[in-house]
Amino acid sequence: MAEQAPYTLRILRVDLGSGQVSEELIDGDTTQKYVGGTGLATKYLWDEVPAGVEWSHPENRLTFFTGPLAGTRVSGSGTFSVTTKGACTGMCGTSQANGFLGAFLRFNGVDGVIVQGAAERWTRLHVEEGTVRLFDAEHLVGLDTWETEDAVKAEVGGRCSVFSIGPGGERLVRFSSIVGDRGHVAAHNGVGAVMGSKKLKCISVARGSQKPRVVDPARLVAKAKELAQVSKDVDPPFVKWGTNAGFAPLSAMGAVPIRNYQTNVFPEPNKYVPDYLRTHFKARPLACWACAIAHCHLMEVTEGPYAGFAGEEPEYEGMAGMGPLLGMTDPGATVMLCNLVDRLGFDVNESGYMVAWLMECYEKGLVTKDDLDGIELRWGDAEAAAALLRKIARREGCGDVFADGVKRAAEKLGGEARDCAVYTLKGATPRGHDHRGHWQEFIDTCLSNTGTVESGGHLFTPPNLGLERPKDRFDPLAMSTQNANLNGGRNLEDSLGICRLCTPNLALTLDCLNAVTGWEWDVAAARHFGLRIVNLMRMFNFRHGLTKEIEAPSVRYASTPVDGPAAGIGIAAHWEAIRDNYYEKMGWDVATGRPLPETLRHYGLEFTLQETDG
Ligand code: SF4
User: Fold this and answer.
1) Is this complex scored with an ipTM above 0.85?
2) In angstroms, what is the span from residue 273 Cα to ligand 1's centroid?
3) Most buried by CB count within 10 Å: which residue of 33, 334, 603, 606?
4) Which one is the CATH code of 9-206: 1.10.10.10, 3.60.9.10, 3.40.190.10, 3.30.565.10?
């Protein structure tokens, strides 16, 4: 059999300051080591973003990278990831988004785009026929993300994918996201704020006509079919109910966030489950590229004060973060707020914790109507929440303080107000869960490199890795050890160019990867890769200010639930033991959290050794 050419990648580099576009070919060995997506982008961050470069500095990098599976026959392969030094933590930020952009890049023969520098005027970056062109985007300023998508599609003419920032990103609101393809979001760690700092309003990618290289097409067809079937059979059934299928099981764990973590008793649980939403409201599927699951839906509210409102169906995290977290009991109001958050270009998680925190502060008299520019921010008041979010997006009045995110605003207010706020000391908020009932994600959120979850995911589950789950989900050391064992899973997911809901089976996903690339990766190779990226991100973060002390939760985040399924079970007393055990299991110095030299050598990261002494 003839020897295959190595699997290589083609990356475009765009300097918005000079307007120059160049091309880089990633050789086969480097591709095997960093794969694509988040993995390859992390290597670029390490190589090109030195200490002292802040998130808003032109020398920060913002990457839009796909992976080897994007644009192939594999279900849900329109995915890409955005990686940068994030605005919330000032450390590594990486966030995956689905839709079409990942596939369309590959149909242009492009595996990723690196953006550096900053433009003088607002700019649109357009990929077509394998290269990049820059267009003036001043006329798009002030448009929300959906309006921007519509305007750019009308300008481009043919089929294209558009991801943009909204008014929040334009004003460098730290928790800004990048939104496109009707409701897909790269949300975490302020990637949209970085985009705004570069005066990049949007990226558009024409459909393209090239076929991504597949080394063994017959094997890919067979394995992709099996993987799609397994994805459809997952329980809870995302194919039938979307991610809101998680509402009931999370509620049973005490992991649905309610009224800023003040209670775990929600008066309207039956209205937030998908069998209510999809039978009472009008819903129709809106699938991403080549997706067999089609969990995304458009939705029209049919009852209550927001009857007639039409938009996207929120994911579980949106329904929770703009629902019970804010004391909402009307799912129609929650649908409206989630859509507003996406259109303003915010991360729905940080938005929820911000509004919920201020609702509690308002109730307790810690902030007043005057402090909020006249807004009476009562629990469950959707219009008041919307008014506050719009102020933040414009950095208008009080909105300017809150535009810097929960941690910074809480520290500014100080005292009792600060102690009500839910955040990590690194500067991010959790996802739309009450993590006090979900310790795996609690530990991960505080100890991950990305400001959000990093361990586990859909590929590195205990069954996929042949591991036992801890018998007690509140066992501090067992849960900490499990997180170390599952670490790197999400970095692998975010490097492949495929939606994580379409990768429930590790062996089949690796079969697809091997069919596309000609590699022969097994589970051990996948874990080795995931942990290589975890350790490289960690070294990047130490370069940019990470310390052991900030790997910790805020006072309220670590408080003990007073009611519900996790009542009386607190994590705070165990935190130091959890963190030290995790460091030890990861091969990191327990005193500092820094990877040990032998750990870095083990993962082929010798080039970081010169920074091991801080
Ligand atoms: S499962 Fe949902 S998010 Fe994932 S590719 Fe399919 S429609 Fe898109």
Assistant:
1) yes
2) 19
3) 334
4) 3.60.9.10
